[in-house]
Every structure is written in structure tokens, then in C-alpha cells.
Amino acid sequence: MTVEEVLDALGATTPEALLRDYQAGRRNFPRINLLRAELRSAVRLGTRPDCLDDPSVDRWNPLWLDHLVRDFEWDSHGRCVSADFDEALPFTCLAGSTLTDINLAGSYLYPASFAAADLSRADFRRAILIECDLSRATLFKADFRGALLRRCSFGGADLSRSRFERATFEFCDLHECNLSRTVFSLARFRGVDLRGSDITSARCVSVTLAGGVTITTDQLDSLLTTLGIVVVAGV
Questions:
Q1: Whole domain around residue 160: which residue ranges?
Q2: CB atoms < 10 A from the CB of 2, how many?
Q3: Do 130 and 175 share a structural domain?
Q4: How far is the C-alpha of 122 from the C-alpha of 107, rounded, in Å?
Q5: In the chain, how many domains are there?
Q6: 37: CB partners within 8 A, 6+ apart
Q7: What does R_g of the chain's alpha carbons equal in angstroms?
Q8: Which of 65, 106, 176, 193 allows an S-S link to 31, with CB 3.0 to 4.6 Å?
Q9: What is the pLDDT of residue 200?
Q10: What pLDDT is stored for residue 77 in this prediction?
Q11: Do 104 and 191 belong together in one domain?
Q12: pTM of the prediction?
């Protein structure tokens, strides 16, 4: 296979190509990554990706690329690093873009900025987002069920009526977000900043607080109520 054919098989694209295809009417971009430029110099010639023989969702994730490319490694946070970029990849910018109804289910997004983008009704189910900037983004009715979110910023974002069932948040910033009717059932939180966000109407059934969340004192009653915790006076 040619290098370009391998990149196509791996779902590798660029921000410019994604925007171009979206503006041309395409909405389905499942299992993609935005690392085409970085991977082009690393893919081994003649490689045949396993995903062509076993097209399961997980095998399309670029976290499998350590079997396919050279000079790429994966750190403890799941970030890919390349010797060509001094262990830091360029920040992919899609800030301010209109991407309503886009399907990015199962995608690997690192590092990327969707700051102030309109991602209403976007599908991020089972996606991996690492060090992504979604601050001030519109994520009304977005679907993040089963997603892994590491060190992502949602500060000031509209997450109203979004779904995060079974999602994992690790060291994410959710301060001053609109969480009206947002569903976090069975989600896992570790080191999450919720200061300034109205969690009164959020649904938090059976959530796991591993490492805790940061809130202000005036949010305490709302959080306890949302979690179904009743505090009674000591006897």
C-alpha cells in the first residue's frame, strides 16, 4: 500500500480537509484523527493496517499505530509523541468553526482547539479527547457517551442537554458551563473544576468521584442534591 492509502485506512485527515468536506455537505467522520501531516513521514512503506482485515471500532483508533509507524510513542496520558516534533505535536485549530450535527464517534482528537465552535448535536460517542480546548463552544445536545476526556477545557461552554453517560473526565475544566439538563449518569470524575457552573438540573446518577471535583461553597447544596445525598444533623 502507498503511504496515502495507509493514512486513508487509518482515518487520518487534516483540519482543512475536515472543514472542506463538512462544508461540502459531509457529516459523518467516525473514527478519524487529525494527524495526517504528522503521520505521513512516520508510516512505514508497504504497511497494511490490521484494521483492513479486522474492521472493529477500536482497531481504527490511532493508539494502535505503534505497530504501524516509526518514531511515534504513547505517553501515560495516551498522547502520541513524535521525534520529528520534539515530543509535542502542533495544536490543531478548528476554533470558531460551525460543525453542527457532525459525527466524530470513536475519533482520537489530540491536540485540537474547538474553542467557540458550534458543535450542537455533535456525536463524540466513545471518542478520545486529550488536551482539547472546547472553551466557549456550543455543545447543545452533544453526545459524549463513553468518551474519554483528559485535560480538556470546557470553560464557559454550553453543555445544556448534552449526554455524558459513562464518560470519563480526568483533570478537565468545566467552570462556568451551562449544565442545564446535562446527563452525567455513571460518569467518572477525577480532578474536575466545576466552579461557577449551575449543576442544579444536571443528572448525576451513580457518578464516581475519583480524585474529587472543585466547587465553591455556594454550589455544595446543589451538588449534594444532584448526587442524591441528604445531610442530616448528628444525633
A1: 91-235
A2: 10
A3: yes
A4: 12
A5: 2
A6: 14
A7: 19
A8: 106
A9: 85
A10: 55
A11: yes
A12: 0.82
Does one domain contain both 75 and 129? no
Q: What is the structure's pLDDT at 175?
A: 94
The reply to whether 5 and 98 lie within a common domain is no
Spell out the residues 6+ positions from residue 196 whose beta carbon is closer than 8 angstroms to its own: 175, 176, 216
| 123, three cell numbers | 456525536
CA nearest neighbour of 145 among 185, 181, 115, 174: 185
Residue with cell string 449518569: 185
Tell whether 129 and 214 lie within a shared domain.
yes
Same domain, 128 and 233: yes
Q: What is the pLDDT of residue 2?
A: 80
Predicted local confidence at residue 22, as pLDDT: 97
- Bridge partners, 148 (sequence order): 128, 168
Residues in the chain where the model's pLDDT stays below 50: 57, 59-60, 63-70, 231-232, 235
Q: Are residues 6 and 105 in the same domain?
A: no
